[in-house]
């Protein structure tokens, strides 16, 4: 393989590769994801352990590098237990439905521009579409069927509750995630991932569209069900969530693989849409050959690993939120904020493109800002009143229950009770120590 000067690929550059090149790229992607899961599990455990001042896995292989392999072998050799009441077909199919869409979603991620692969000029990306980002969102939505079917087919109340939680959570945060991409589409003028990377040649979208990136980060945790938003697996309320009835066998391994692959996909999409994709950061980008040949693979991989480190860091730092807080954030904060932000971005973009509509766009932007502030102040006032009313209700109920022990309050024994807890109280003469 030789390094050649690269050009930004477009959708028209795809679909022209020989079949054997497509197969090679698919195999390379599969190997990358499989090795990524093995090393990702090890890396997450080592990083969290260092943050908590402990060693982590250090027995299987040098630095514990073979710990993931040992875990995989253990799960593959353990007895595969089927509960008697499960729907066996859906019980087996659910983990597969969770894994396959994750592999497909990663196929639209660009790793590098046009390169020479075994003598063939080809984009280092498996496939691209005019609606590639929508394809990624669709695959994320399909994978939730695996979670729901895993809970439903288990015929367990805790597993079913975990599946229903996951469905509600993904619906809520899928909407907010899709809206966070709209500002990117407005500035890039396309939904193709390769062309979105090309649109960030001068400035990364994380700089111009920082609010969209922040919203996407929240949605990334909600979509991948990672802490602090891993409510489908809440051990305190649901034992183990939708996977309660799956023993530590290959089916459980597939479920864990699917979760890691969705985390990888979310990290790769963050890099592609907001962090410049495979483009080199400043000051490396000042080097003329930084974005040519196979160097972009290195820049993409560094950004990808740093994003995954951020996900692990959040897991080690924040506790799990309550379910009502999770849903309230998605519906009451992220979605309304996204709608107001999209209107503002559209107005600014209109000013940049059509100067004759500048006054109209500025007026629209001012209206949007004033409207958003008014809604926020109204919401904050109503929320404060609701909190004060709730505090008064709780105080009144507590006082009422405290005065009525029979109603379930907290009784206080009379001070003149002669026998308490089986001990007879004796009067102590004054002046006695």
Describe what you observe in this structure.
The chain is mainly alpha-helical and 433 residues long. The chain folds into two domains: 11-321, no CATH class; 322-401. Helix content is 63%, strand content 3%. The protein contains 13 helices and four strands. The protein has helices at 19-51, 67-77, 88-105, 132-153, 157-188, 193-199, 205-208, 210-224, 235-238, 250-274, 295-317, 323-353, 358-403; strands spanning 112-117, 120-124, 419-420, 423-424. The strands form two sheets. Strands 1-2 form a two-stranded antiparallel sheet. Helix 3 packs antiparallel against helix 4 (132-153), helix 3 runs parallel beside helix 10 (250-274) and helix 8 packs antiparallel against helix 12 (323-353). The termini are far apart. The model is unreliable at 1-6 (pLDDT under 50). It catalyses: a quinone + NADH + 5 H(+)(in) = a quinol + NAD(+) + 4 H(+)(out). One of its GO terms (molecular function) is NADH dehydrogenase activity. Pfam families: NADHdh. NDH-1 is composed of 14 different subunits. Subunits NuoA, H, J, K, L, M, N constitute the membrane sector of the complex.
